[in-house]
Amino acid sequence: MAQICQTIEVLNLWYCNGDITGLIELIKVQQNLRSLFLHFKNVNDQCSQLSNIIETKASKLNKLIIKSVNSISPKFLSSLINLQYLELDNDDDEYVIYNQIIDWDYYLSIISFPNIQYLKIIHLPSFNDYLLIEKSRGNLIEINIRHRYKNIAYTEKLINTIARCCPKIERLTIDVEPENLDGIKEILLNCSQLIEIDLSTKNDDQMICDRLLKIFIDVSPNNLYKFSLCDFWIFSVGGFNSFFENWKDKSPMEFNLYFGDETWFTKEYEMILRKYLANGIIEKTNYFDY
Predict the structure, then answer these.
(1) What is the top-level taxon of the source organism (predicted)?
(2) Which of 49, 115, 111, 109 is nearest to 83 (CA)?
């Protein structure tokens, strides 16, 4: 392939298991590579040679997706000067080596992507990813960041950074805890282009979080219509009903629930959803697809 295919623009590679000589040569000879997808599986040693060759092509890349990021050295990240789309996914790799964490922490603290519009980071072994947003020059349109563990201090930094630095954002997916709700209010006040918000929570104390629904009512920008609440959010019957009742003067919403524990969601809640779905305040919900 390296001898025949030298003008590939989009290259997607699955189940890469190391510094494969043929793969390195294939990437090396590319002249027009714009988009690169790498999925690693069963890698024993971090792929430094592959990282080195990507570094030589990095200035032309505008889209990069890496699954199982621990499998490759992040040193090439600083050469991605024209990147618009970045997805780093470590969801299938819970085994993390300390030195690899240090590597990713370091590079995420020093790099910047001034043209980036889409950022997705899933279970990365680092809590410096909010710095990418801080240095994005306000161009981000979509953010999707999820971490494996609850970290209220990090989440506060992330939320505050989004509120300050993302005036153009349209779609937002992040972890939030009840202690972070003031920051969510600031995002809604400052990010007027927001049309979709997806919030998950660990909510270990099983707190009633009606305040989140009231914030949605009080300060949601006019464009916001799609809400997804995931994992362990809990609302009172009264707060749940009040949310939809007070939305009646706004555009119809899409409202989705993805439960970590649905024992609190009784028939009374289901009746509320049916009521506001029937009268058009809820345009669409996933709940009745379960």
Answers:
(1) Eukaryota
(2) 115
CA nearest neighbour of 83 among 140, 129, 28: 140
Measured over the CA atoms of residue 122, residue 124, residue 126 and residue 130, the dihedral's sign is negative
Nearest residue to 165 (alpha-carbon basis) of 87, 203, 127, 113: 113
| pTM of the model as a whole | 0.92
Domain ranges of the chain: 1-148
* DSSP string computed for the chain: -TTT----SEEEEEEE-S--HHHHHHHHT-SS--EEEEEE-S-SS-BHHHHHHHHHHGGG-SEEEEESGGGB-GGGGGG-TT--EEEEE-TT-----HHHHHHHHHHHHH---TT--EEEEES-S-S-THHHHHTSTT---EEEEE-SS--HHHHHHHHHHHHHH-TT--EEEEE--GGGHHHHHHHHHH-TT--EEEEEE--TT----HHHHHHHHHH--TT--EEEEEES----HHHHHHHHHTTTTS--EEEEEEES--TT--HHHHHHHHHHHHTTSEEEESGGG-
The CATH number of the structural domain formed by 1-148 is: 3.80.10
Whether residue 242 contacts residue 236, with contact meaning beta carbons closer than 8 Å, is answered with no
